[in-house]
Amino acid sequence: MDILSLFVTVPVLTILALVFAKGLKQARIVAMVGSLIQLGMAINLIFAYFKERAINDSIMVFTKDYMWFEQFNIHYTVGVDGISVALLILTSIVVLAGVFISWTMEDLPKEFFISLLVLSSGVYGFFISLDLFTMFVFYEIAVIPMYLLIGIWGSGPKEYSAMKLTLMLMGASAVLLVGILGIYFNSNADGGALTFNILEISQVNIPFEAQKLFFPLTFIGFAVLGALFPFHTWSPDGHASAPTAVSMLHAGVLMKLGGYGVFRVAMFLLPLGAIDWSWFFIILSATGVIYGAFGAIKQNDLKYINAYSSVSHLGMVLFALLMLNKTSWNGAIMQSLSHGFMTALFFALIGMIYSRTHTRDITKLGGLLKVIPFISVIYVIAGLASLGLPGFSGFVAEMNIFVGAFQHEDMFHRVATIISVSAIVVTAVYILRVVGIMLMGPIKNSEFLDMSDATWFEKTGILLLLIPIIGMGVAPLWLSDMIMASLQPFIKGVL
Amino acid sequence: MNFNYVILIPLIPLAVFLLLGIFYKKIKPAVSGYIGVFGLLTSTVLSYYTAFQYFFVQEKVDGVYQTFVSKTTWMNFTDTLAIDMGILIDPISVMMLIVVSTISLMVHIYSRGYMKGDEGYTKFFAFLGLFSFSMFGLVLATNLFQIYIFWELVGVSSFLLIGYYYTKPSAVAASKKAFIVTRFADLGFLIGILIVGYYTGTYDFETLNNPEGNAILSWASTSFMGLSVLTWALILIFIGGAGKSAMFPLHIWLPDAMEGPTPVSALIHAATMVVAGVYLVARLFPMYYFVEDGFALNVVAYVGGFSSLFAAIIAVTQNDIKRVLAFSTMSQLGYMMMALGVSGYDGHEGVGYMASMFHLFTHAMFKALLFLGAGSVIHAVHSNYLKDMGGLRKYMPITNITFLIAALAISGVPPFAGFWSKDEILVAAFEHNKLLYFVGLFVAGLTAFYMFRIYFGIFWGKDTQYKHAPHESPIAMTFPLMFLGALSVVVGLIPFSEFVTADKAGFVAHLNYPLAAIAVGVGVVGIILSYIFYKKENDLAEKFSKAFGVFYKWTFNKFYFDEIYLFVTRKIIFNRISAPIAYFDKKYVDGFMEGMGNKTVVVSEKIKGIQSGKFQDYAFAFLAGFVILAMVFIYLWTK
């Protein structure tokens, strides 16, 4: 078994082990061990990647190729570059943290963990795939368990939320499928055979007319998952109903599939379409950035605030991708990672606060710093990271995006850039509003006085997420250089 | 000469912060106080050693103080553009090291007395450590991005310390306001940095500031709306500076920031962080001066002059002594900005630059002293308001004398520190801009008046009957007062112009006797008026304020700027932008999907037998969907 396919196999094996696990406690331990192994593999992959990079300068390393469906030339092809390595690390950390945090907080059966691991194997598969069809299959594997996870183990209007989420994402998948097939049927434009292989297609000159037609389909198909305005409305309701670990994984990892897909498929394979359409999607994404931020100011439900904040932050990812240069793309990837860690941390903290106070309405909360200092302090730190304070990951990502976006000299790009940059102020407003109302101030409810602070499992989960946020923020050089080096082949198409 | 050890100056407070922050619960309060003081003491010793080495041991080259830079790449944007981290040693950064370390050390010592018994004692010293680290980093920054990074960090330290009493709603509101207003200003700063980076290809101070360098010489190559893009950038950067240094109209956060503990007000909101804006303009002074013949610099001068006057007028009417001091700080910062704005570059022409830095230096000493003195008074009478004070000279002799020294210093009475620096500012204004000179002169008179108004109000005036007799503060608090008092007497005698000048060469400044005499005269008139009004209890002041009627009311309410701010945030941002967006999102964007969703729910109601809750059923549905998908795909292909 090659080093990459293990990422799909280990979750599957963990699922098998879970099927035989007896009782909740065993299920949790199995899930934890499985996720720990994944994290170990991800860390091992970084070292292996750097070692391999030193001697191998092809676009993708560790490539493996197996014929899957000969009739349509569908392969199971895997390979990674710096970007996928970074996202694999993100996934493994968020999954492990999710397992730790839901350890004692919510009473969830082993089927829950099984669905969670199905989801994560889909995500891993998506990030390592180099074959469009395989990628799409993994994409669906990642998205579909969401319906079960929210619909069954969620809270509030869970069926409605699950249905809405699944329908919108399925709708997007349909559009995406058309886009992918469009790419497939044009992959013989230079006379070769039809292929799904991303690297092979990237060498083909797909006719401009086809690019123009299929780029928006592919872009929207992926970007709906990345909360592109105005297709973001599934996300607040979905998050509000989802259990903590699901929100974490969903916002932290699953939504990243959108940006990654846009980058890997839409931008890489249809560069002329990207250049032609960029103005339109820049308008949408820049609107999303500022719209999400303003939308978050008025919400009172913690999860809604975070969901709208995600619309804003992920709008930034799409915005950066559309700026079509190395610096902004680097920023987009960093923002994906940074948002993944941050938002997972936020949802974890929200879950902890909810399980103690039984409310997510900030107007009913107050003075939490006094009663649950650890959770509250981490919430403040997460908030500061989210508003782009230097020393945390959000800052390095945003600065790359802004500097990259500023490379365009024309008025249209300048205005869009300045609109996006001004989100840093609005973000500060909604973050400090929550901090001011919920954490500071007098204690509003005397019942809160005997709450207990984070348990050891919760603390471990928190630290797992916090360390990369600070690490990226304090010493971004190696990560940014690793991503930057992998961007070179991708940038050629749009130059 | 090797200055690499300077890196320790910021790193030691950082270590203190991490130590106290992480082991928050394990460290005894008394120990954490000592850790904080000892850490800062080390940094202070290193700072003084650096200053000695830089100004006295190291040789000037061609009569110019050399700049030392040591840096490393922090993050690459492109092949040519990167953020560096490092240290830059030149006259103003060395001077700032002295200011920050001295005041910070004194505040650390003072806080051991002032914060005694407070439950967040360790947290307080941790935050002070964080602030000192950030401020040192800001001062030593080698490029625009580094200064921006530490700029944000001092902002957040200030936020944390203003909101230190976090259960108090007014403190929470003040901390939020301070952060958001300065963040708004920083938006301008950031866009300015982006413009500079794009058009000059560097963030590096040394490259940018070189008068013969590309950045400055090519200012005319790109223009936007009639002005050079670099002028726009410098104005935007100045907006950032104006936010931190509380220039009109971004000053509204500073008076509210007095909600923080008084030592914090002394350190952050009087002596160090608020001068960051002045320091930023000084740091980029060659750019401000040479680009488009100093257009942006003129903006700095007028904004500074106006803020100085505006704040001084408000200060006259305020009754909370910390707010008087806050407006006084704003006024003096305006002075410094104005001095930079009217400055030239070479030799004696650059007297404004020198005066601005000199005033920054002296002001830090006596303003910190005023705040710490006020803290000592507040500590004794448990109130911020003048009405609860009076006759305190009998109870608090040390505080009385040191406060008087500081008040004389800020009023520009010789030989105290403020006289020397203020005089140079007025000389610079007189030589370059007569209008601003008269503004400056008037402000000097007002300053003397309002400062002695509170001095007499606190220590003389009516004989208030106290429930508990106030007593002098403990030695931990009076020692910093005496130390800073001594400094406020002597620092004015430093021949500053030989060390810190725009062209780094130094010159010999002479006292301009006529101008000095006029300035002192105006100050003394202010003091005498104050003596008549406030030395003894009388109703003169009340009659006077009645006579001014509307004008008094407007001034007392700070020209209603807080109301405007509230209007903008509550009425416009919350109710006119955010609420409609939330509504629009729910009603229309979501409404469209809702329609689909509702139909689906109806359908799902009908076929809900499928939702059995059994995992196998779902797995089957999943597989079935997959097969259908594959069939669709095959259909499309064969078509």
Helix-strand category of chain B: mainly alpha
- The general outline of chain B is globular
SSE-based structural type of chain A: mainly alpha
Query: Can you count the beta strands of chain B?
Result: 4
DSSP summary: helix tally of chain B? 25
Low-confidence stretches of chain A: none
Helicity level of chain B: 55-70%
Number of domains of chain A: 1
Separate helix tally of chain A: 21
Element pattern of chain B in H and E: HHEEHHHHHHEEHHHHHHHHHHHHHHHHH
Mean pLDDT of chain A: 87
Strand order of the largest sheet of chain A: 1-2
Strand composition percent of chain B: under 5%
Major sheet of chain B, described briefly? Answer: 2 strands, antiparallel
Measured on Cα atoms, how large is the radius of gyration of chain A?
Answer: 21 Å
Which percent band covers the strand fraction of chain A?
A: under 5%
Q: Which strand order spans the largest sheet of chain B, edge to edge or round the barrel? A: 1-2
Tell me the distance between the termini of chain A.
Answer: 38 Å
Mean pLDDT across residues of chain B: 85
Described by its quaternary structure, the protein is heterodimer
State the separation between the terminal residues of chain B, measured CA to CA: 79 Å
Would you write up a description of this structure?
The complex is a heterodimer of chains A (495) and B (639). Chain A has 495 residues and is mainly alpha-helical. Helices cover 75% and strands 3% of the residues of chain A. Chain A contains 21 helices and 2 strands. Chain A has a two-stranded antiparallel ribbon with strand order 1-2. In chain A, a hairpin with a 4-residue loop joins strand 1 (61-69) and strand 2. The two termini of chain A are 38 Å apart. Chain B has 25 helices and 4 strands. The radius of gyration of chain B is 28 Å and the shape is globular. The model of chain B has no long low-confidence stretch (mean pLDDT 85). At the A-B interface, helix 5, helix 6, helix 12, helix 17 and helix 19 of A face strand 1, helix 5, helix 6, helix 24 and helix 25 of B.
